[in-house]
Amino acid sequence: MQEVNKNITYTFDELKEVLEELEMILISLHKMGSYYGEKFHTYGEEMYRGEYEKETTRFIDEWRVCEKLAKVRSILSDRFDRTLGEDYMDDLEREMDEIRYWSKPGDML
Question: Where on the tree of life does the source sit, at the highest rank (predicted)?
Fold first, then answer.
C-alpha cells in the first residue's frame, strides 16, 4: 500500500454528509424492522412477510438508498491515490477485491 493511502483526512462537512446518509438509512431500516418485528411477534410472520418485503423495497427505491450509498462511497474513496500497481490495480481496488457480493440463486458466491 502506498504511504499516502495509510492516513486519509476528511473535512467535518464530508464526514457529516456521510454520517447523515448512513444514519438515515440505518435508522429507517431499524424502524421498519422493529415495526414489522412486532407484527411478526403478535400476528405471525407469515401474515406480514410480503408487506415487510414490499415496504423495504419501496424504501430502497423511493428514498434512493443506492444513490445515497454511492455518494457515501464516492466521498470516502475520492481521497485515495488511485495510482496503479504492478497488478494493474490501485490500493483501494486491491483491498476491495475479496468482498463477497449478492448473486442470483444458483450462482457461486
Answer: Bacteria
